[in-house]
Design brief:
Number of helices: 9
Structural class: alpha+beta
CATH superfamily of the largest domain: Histidine kinase-like ATPase, C-terminal domain
Low-confidence stretches: 336-340
CATH class of the largest domain: Alpha Beta
CATH architecture of the largest domain: 2-Layer Sandwich
Mean pLDDT: 84
Distance between the termini: 65 Å
Number of domains: 3
Largest sheet: 5 strands, antiparallel
Strand order of the largest sheet: 2-1-5-4-3
Shape: globular
Length: about 350
């Protein structure tokens, strides 16, 4: 006899699959069976990997089982539909997968992206023209202090708009899979160069930027330019949100065939309610302390897009007033056979 809660789960419009702590299926509601073309009778009490053929979903179950923390991902099915999938570990039960059909939202997002790309391209020419005329003002004659201040603010505004346009176009190129040629990549070199580029900025902010490279790390399969972009965006973020006199620590380790990179700080931190949205496009932490900090809200969205294109995962742990740790994990390149 079904319990009330089981009846609710079975009748839900969202696709729901519940597995026990041994990854055996306890429940697969009608919406999940329809979405994945499954028959519940053949699933119950059997390992989730035997009858659910979707690789992305199986990868999520493996991730949650190993990391013991919730994960979410967009899952595309063969019939063209897209689902937002969230897998959550439940102590004493196992794992609960909830999938929401967002196909129509993806189509709206595609239309929006095309519009943003078109508008961004069209804005570049007038912005370049405006920048050129601002640069020429000082040649037209002497400027007083107030005029110089106006020009400074105009330049800062143009720089912000230009950065926004560049980032918007970059996100679209990433989602289209452009500029992502992959090869064996040494993350120590990537991190070294990024840290050196930010060391002077950290010193200007009176921050202690720490990076103690490990003796060696396995290579990852990646795009050096994009992985450097990830480090640049993470370091730019923590420099902005760490107070003068604070510290920033970068580290990298090998764990179970993966390379894990951490960028930690003792900055202002992130409120718990805002952490799930921190990697969303245009999302910025909202507080009195962040109101005056400039930014487009796209830097961490680019980080997430790059890492996921590299078959990795990015996350953040944070406590308000104590700081944050941004981390990402990438699969290591398997070492080849030793020469005979």
């Amino acid at each position: 006899m079904q319990t009330h809660w089981e009846s609710v789960l079975r009748g839900a419009q969202d696709a729901i699959i519940v597995v026990d702590e041994e990854n055996h299926v306890l429940l697969c509601n009608a919406a999940a069976c329809t979405a994945l073309n499954l028959v519940e009778a053949g699933l119950l009490h059997r390992p989730v990997g035997e009858n659910i053929p979707h690789p992305a979903l199986l990868s999520m179950f493996d991730q949650v089982r190993q990391a013991r923390q919730a994960t979410r991902s967009k899952v595309s099915l063969e019939d063209g539909r897209t689902f937002n999938a969230q897998l959550t570990p439940i102590a004493g039960v196992g794992q609960v997968l909830v999938m929401q059909d967002i196909t129509h939202l993806k189509e709206l997002d595609r239309i929006k992206s095309e519009l943003v790309t078109a508008v961004s391209h069209d804005l570049r020419t007038p912005l370049t023209t405006a920048q050129g005329y601002i640069d020429l003002l000082s040649r037209a004659g002497p400027l007083n202090e107030q005029q110089r201040d106006y020009i400074l603010h105009a330049r800062q505004g143009l720089e912000t708009i230009t950065e926004l346009i560049v980032n918007l176009l970059d996100v679209d190129r990433l989602e289209a899979g452009l500029d992502l040629e992959m090869g064996p990549c040494d993350l120590i070199q990537v991190i070294d160069r990024a840290v050196e580029d930010f060391r002077l900025l950290a010193e200007e902010h009176k921050q202690d930027l720490r990076w103690d490279p490990p003796g060696e790390l396995p290579l990852v399969r990646g795009n050096p330019y994009r992985l450097r972009q990830v480090m640049n965006n993470l370091l730019s973020n923590v420099v902005k949100y760490t107070r003068a006199g604070g510290w920033i620590a970068v580290s990298a380790v090998e764990e179970d065939g993966h390379v894990v990179v951490h960028v930690a700080d003792n900055g202002i931190g992130i409120p718990p309610a805002q952490i799930p949205y921190i990697f969303d496009r245009f999302y910025r932490v909202k507080s009195d302390e962040t109101a005056s900090i400039p930014g487009t809200g796209l830097g961490l969205a680019i980080v997430k897009a790059v890492i996921e294109k590299h078959n990795g995962r990015v996350w953040v742990e944070s406590k308000p007033g104590l700081g944050s740790v941004f981390s990402f994990i990438l699969p290591a390149v398997e070492a080849g056979p030793s020469p005979g």
